[in-house]
Amino acid sequence: MDILSHLANGLAIALSPGNLFYCFVGVLIGTLVGVLPGVGPIAGMSLLIPATFGMHPTTAMIMLAGIYYGAMYGGSTTSILINVPGEAASVVTSLDGYQMARAGRAGPALAMAAIGSFVAGTFSILMLMLLAPPFAQLALKFGPAEYAAVMILGFVLLAYLVQGSMLKALMVAAFGLLLGTVGIEPMSGYRRFAFGRPELWEGIGFVPVAMGLFGIAEVLVSVERASLQEVIRTKLRHLWPSQEDWKDSIGAILRGSVLGFAVGILPGPATVLASFTSYTVEKRVSRHPERFGRGAIEGVAGPEAANNAATGGAMVPLLALGIPFAPATAVMMGALMIHGVRPGPLLIEQRPDFFWGVIVSMYIGNFMLLILNLPLVGLFASLLRVPGRFLHPLIVLFCLVGVYSINYSVFDVWVMILFGLLGYVLRKGGFEVAPLVLALVLGPVFETSLRQSLIMSRGDLAVFLRRPLAAGLLLVALALVLTPLLRHVSGRLLAVAGREDLSDRDRA
Amino acid sequence: MLHRGDLASGCIGFVFALAVCFGARAMPMGSIRDPGAGFMPFWVGAALAAMSLVLMSSVFLPLRKFVAPKTGELNRYQVAWMVGGLLFYGLALEPLGYLVTTFLLLGALLWILGERRWLSAVAFSALVTGASYALFGLWLGVPLPGGIIAR
Q1: B28, B36, B136 member nearest A401 (Cβ)
Q2: Which helix (H) or strand (E) holds A259?
Q3: What's the DSSP call for residue A2?
Q4: pTM for this prediction
Q5: Are the Cβ atoms of A390 and B94 closer than 8 angstroms?
């Protein structure tokens, strides 16, 4: 079947009333979680996973993907209107977007953010559609050694790219891998770390952990910092951008689209990295870099395009390799596995209805978002008038009742509460929680790949070096681990040399 | 300035990792030719122990400087009360039931977060508890714990 017939098939699936409805629900909820500070797309998806249990897997994925890319649209609204980013990927949007709003140009900023997001979102879906099938074909040649190597590189790259200490991120990833070993071991049936609790035989539930880390912990952090947010309101006037705005933005949108998609494919917090990288690039290529931070529209258009393009890029490794490289796609993979769908190289071939249905629904969802976000932006902004003292208890309740409804288990509620506290404590200690989720999801797959590699090579560790792709990936991982160490050592040596130089001069 | 929290994190990580390694040793370890159930937890535990030691050593040997972020005044008491509320919820959900526990939790959270009008707090808690019960318990058919009301 050629690509057009696949698309036609996908269109029929995406346009079915149920899928269309849940696509709308997904992008609407995505916009809402993007608008509301403190609730990001990961928390939004985690909260909604229990609601997908009665759905067809394709419908569930359509809704969850809608939340993911919808949140990128919503995040810009609060950044521009009140200088409070709705989610992390919109932090840089506030730098120039809010300055534009203060100058009475909130309308063009919001419009360009939405248009840029739409163009980039569409571009990234096109690229996803074109790149995922060949990636999947390539991945079919992967053996267990390559899979294990890809996952090691994924953990290391995520740890390298997250904010803060790489060592701490690797520690959290190791903790996540250990959590993934709880329960009945798949190869021999041995019960590990279950402590006689039947609830742990099937492992620690992914949903309670994700809801605790991203729902409860997020609320605790927001409550703690509530007094620190300075909310300044502005008025929304003249929505449509001027000719000059278009001239300034078009290049930024195109660059942001390409850059965002490329960054999205790499392991790490794709959307956040994409927007920051785009902002840096726009400032570099601008003829007037001094305008940045004072209301440059390309400082809004580029990053907003980039964070949307990154959502499509992040779906490539998930759908083609079955390896989520970003925390948000790890949540999606967790949800899909609950639905009995195992993403991977065979998915596109064996379940074309799923793959193409989701792809086409993303096109449709992007149109819906454009329509939702331009005329209704004032309505979404008014949500911010709901005081936190009412909003936070609602989020907590959704987490509690949502997690209970999965297995009707108070044990799961406890797991979520404990991981909520753990997430809060980890953040306070400067530990990123994203690697934990990724490692928990990938842990069992990683263990199986590692053990299969060792069994097939009869315990010869050189198997990872004999296979060129695995060796290359591991070398990159090693280089990434050593880079901070080498940077530190060279910094110390330079500092020592500088001190000696100064004391020589003093003596002279 | 050194980050004392890193010392505590490293210690906890190290003790946890050691416990995992001991637990894994009690499982069939297999060999490198045919790894058993304890293989992966043991080696990941060992890696975590090593990383925890590095974290601790970075506190003793001032390899890097830690600058505390400017956080301003934090609502730590509110967080502590919220945590208390959540723990209460976990303990009371089965004996008291969904309706009573959820109503009490929501009321407590509203109070903790600064809502001092008791009528509005009671109305909000009752409305949300009722709506969530209607949605999950009646419409979606989730068997929410009945507790004292069901008896």
Answers
A1: B136
A2: helix A243-265
A3: -
A4: 0.77
A5: no
